[in-house]
Amino acid sequence: MRTDDNILRARLKAGAKTGPKRASITSVGVLVFIEIGCLALCSPSQAQSQPRDQVRREYSLPEAPSPSADVTGAKQQSFGTVSGQVVDQTSKGIAGADVILMRDRESLIDEVQSDDDGRFTFAHVSPGPLELRIIAEGFVAAVMSGTKHYGENYFFPQLALSLATQVTEIRVSPSMEEIAQEEFKDQEKTTCSGHRSQLYVSYTGGAAPLTPKRKFQLALKATTDPVSVSAVGVIAGVNQASDRFSGYGQGPQGYGKRYGASYANFASGLFIGGAVLPSLFKQDPRYFYKGMGTKRSRLLYAISRTVICKGGNQHWQPNYSLVFGDLAAGGLSNLYLPARDRHGAALTFENAGIAIGTTAAINVLQEFVLRKVTSRRE
Predict the structure, then answer these.
(1) What does the pLDDT read at residue 43?
(2) In angstroms, what CA-CA distances link 55 with 39, 49, 61, 195, 353?
(3) Is 215 a domain residue?
(4) What is the pLDDT of residue 272?
(5) Same domain for 213 and 321?
(6) Is the pLDDT of residue 59 over 60?
(7) Does residue 92 carry a pLDDT above 80?
(8) Global pTM?
(9) Which of 88, 101, 203 is nearest to 146 (CA)?
(10) Are residues 204 and 302 in the same domain?
């Protein structure tokens, strides 16, 4: 036992000589051990975050972007511009052209106008199929298609517009005056038993209206027409035989006076009712042949044309010209009839009634008889 105690004492003495140094070493080891234990006991994230942060600080690495920033940047990168140039056949830019950008025929993206050089630009256009429509005054409209891909700016190839072909249709047709002139000449060729008559008859329903000049020419020809002159002679003979207007007497002198009065009555009625008043009222003094329908309808038509006529607008209207013309002629007859045969207003209405009745009878003849014996020399 003592031996063992001696050995122990010897070791303690040796340790006392080297004690401070060994104690310092032991302290450092203990501290290292304690630090390692603390690190082991800490959470894994904390244990790992410190080295990462240290490395990031040492090498100045940037922070990782957040997911929202990535999505926004991708969207911004997908949009781009669409541009191009519109030119004519000589490659000169067309200014002010309407440029329409569409996704399809029903989806409009935007619309701009080309600048002075014919260039155009659409901003913020998403990828996909594109349809470009260009409209410029004086040029043929054009359509061009293309496709804008992701992340690119699309440029349409230079588009040359063609000049629009203007088709001018010129219809050369005679004026109403010229048509009326030709119809008037053609009407003069109308013959009845070899004599010029029926000047106031038209066999064309849509005949051009007569001008005032033609109306007076027609009245002049009618008053000098041989058939008209002969008809006046017959009327004078009937008045002579019935001793109408006895103040004129009998014999050649009486017949001459009666002929003059009848001709004056005929001419005044023709000029007033066939030229002057039709020009003022813009009415057509001619009889327009019907030629169809039942006999009764044609008879009523012929008689009614004494109080109905065509206006300058080709519509039927009251025949003021004929009625007032016959009344005026009847009133004038009081100036040249024998004094004892003048009966004032009664004579005026009597002569006007006879004139209107005569016109109705002539219209009936025109409708049923004279057309059949009339020839036309073209």
Answers:
(1) 44
(2) 18, 10, 8, 132, 132
(3) yes
(4) 94
(5) yes
(6) no
(7) yes
(8) 0.49
(9) 101
(10) yes
Structural domain including 138 reads 79-160
Angle between helices 345-365 and 295-304 (to 10 degrees): 140
Q: 247-251: which pairs have CB atoms within 8 A and are 24 or more residues apart?
A: 247/337, 247/338, 247/339, 247/340, 247/341, 248/338
Looking at residue 54, its amino acid is: Q
Span 249-277, average pLDDT: 91
Residue 256 exposure: Cα atoms within 13 Å on the Cβ side: 3
What's the token pair of residue 150?
């992701």
Q: Which of 307, 314, 282, 325 is nearest to 363 (CA)?
A: 307
